[in-house]
C-alpha cells in the first residue's frame, strides 16, 4: 500500500467514525487545509471553536461536559471580541468553509451553510426584523459572499451563487445567480471641471 492510499484510508476512518472526537479532529484538519495550513488565521480559529461547540451541543451533559462548555464559552467570546467573528455553535456549517478575513462578521444562530462556501470581512447574516429570532438563511454549496454583504431573514441561497460587495439580500436567490449592487453614480462634478478651469486654466 502506498503512502497516499494509506492517508486516504486513515482520513476515511476519521471522517466516518462514530466517535465525535475523531470526527472533530478530521473536520479541524480539513478546515486547516482550507485555510492554507496556517493555524494562526483568525478564520480558522473561529471555525475550530465553532466545531468544538457544535460537538458539545449534542453530547450528554455531565461534569466533563460542564467544564468543556465553560472552555467553549471562553473561546467563543475571545474569538468574537478579539477577531470580530461571531459564529455560534447552533449554526450549521458544512465542510471547508473559508473565512478569508476577520472583523465585522456576524452569523445568525440558525444559519445553515453547505460545503465550500467563502465569507470575507464585514458580512452580516441576521434577522429580517430587530428583536425577532427568525429562521436563519440557508446557503447551498460553493456560495461566495463578498465584503459588506448583508443577508437578512430566512432566505434560501442556491448552489454556486455569488453575492457581491455591499449587496443586501432579503429574497431567495436561485442557483448559479450573481447578486450585485448598481455601480456608483457621479452626481456632482467639481467646479473646475464644469468651467473648464483649474490651476492651469487660471494662469
Please explain how this structure is put together:
There is one protein chain. The chain is α/β, with parallel strands linked by helices and 203 residues long. It has a single domain, classed as Hexapeptide repeat proteins (UDP N-Acetylglucosamine Acyltransferase, domain 1, 3 Solenoid), CATH 2.160.10. The strands form three sheets. It has a five-stranded parallel beta sheet with strand order 1-3-5-8-11. Strands 2-4-7-10-12 form a five-stranded parallel beta sheet. It is elongated, with a radius of gyration of 22 Å. The termini are far apart. The mean pLDDT is 86.
Total DSSP helices: 5
Mean pLDDT: 86
Helix content: 25-40%
Work out the number of β strands: 12
**Helix vs. strand class:** alpha/beta
Runs in which pLDDT lies below 50 for 5 or more consecutive residues are none
CATH architecture: 3 Solenoid
**What general form does the structure show?**
elongated
**CATH class categorisation:** Mainly Beta
> So what's the oligomer here?
single chain
Distance between the termini: 83 Å
CATH topology: UDP N-Acetylglucosamine Acyltransferase, domain 1
Give the domain tally: 1
The whole-angstrom Rg is: 22 Å
Can you summarize the main beta sheet?
A: 5 strands, parallel
Classify the beta-strand content into a percent band. 5-15%
Amino acid at each position: 500500500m502506498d503512502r497516499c492510499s494509506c492517508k486516504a484510508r486513515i482520513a476515511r476512518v476519521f471522517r466516518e467514525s462514530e466517535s465525535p472526537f475523531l470526527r472533530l479532529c478530521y473536520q479541524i484538519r480539513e478546515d486547516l487545509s482550507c485555510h492554507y495550513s496556517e493555524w494562526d488565521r483568525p478564520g480558522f480559529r473561529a471555525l475550530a471553536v465553532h466545531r468544538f461547540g457544535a460537538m458539545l451541543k449534542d453530547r450528554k451533559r455531565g461534569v466533563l461536559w460542564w467544564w468543556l462548555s465553560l472552555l467553549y464559552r471562553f473561546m467563543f467570546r475571545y474569538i468574537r471580541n478579539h477577531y470580530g467573528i461571531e459564529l455560534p455553535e447552533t449554526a450549521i456549517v458544512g465542510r471547508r468553509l473559508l473565512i478569508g478575513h476577520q472583523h465585522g462578521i456576524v452569523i445568525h444562530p440558525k444559519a445553515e451553510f453547505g460545503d465550500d462556501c467563502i465569507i470575507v470581512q464585514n458580512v452580516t447574516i441576521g434577522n429580517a426584523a430587530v428583536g425577532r429570532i427568525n429562521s436563519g438563511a440557508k446557503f447551498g454549496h460553493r456560495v461566495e459572499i463578498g465584503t459588506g454583504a448583508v443577508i437578512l431573514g430566512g432566505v434560501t441561497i442556491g448552489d454556486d451563487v455569488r453575492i457581491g460587495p455591499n449587496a443586501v439580500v432579503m429574497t431567495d436567490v436561485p442557483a448559479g445567480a450573481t447578486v450585485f449592487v448598481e455601480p456608483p453614480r457621479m452626481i456632482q462634478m467639481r467646479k473646475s471641471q464644469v468651467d473648464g478651469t483649474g490651476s492651469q486654466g487660471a494662469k
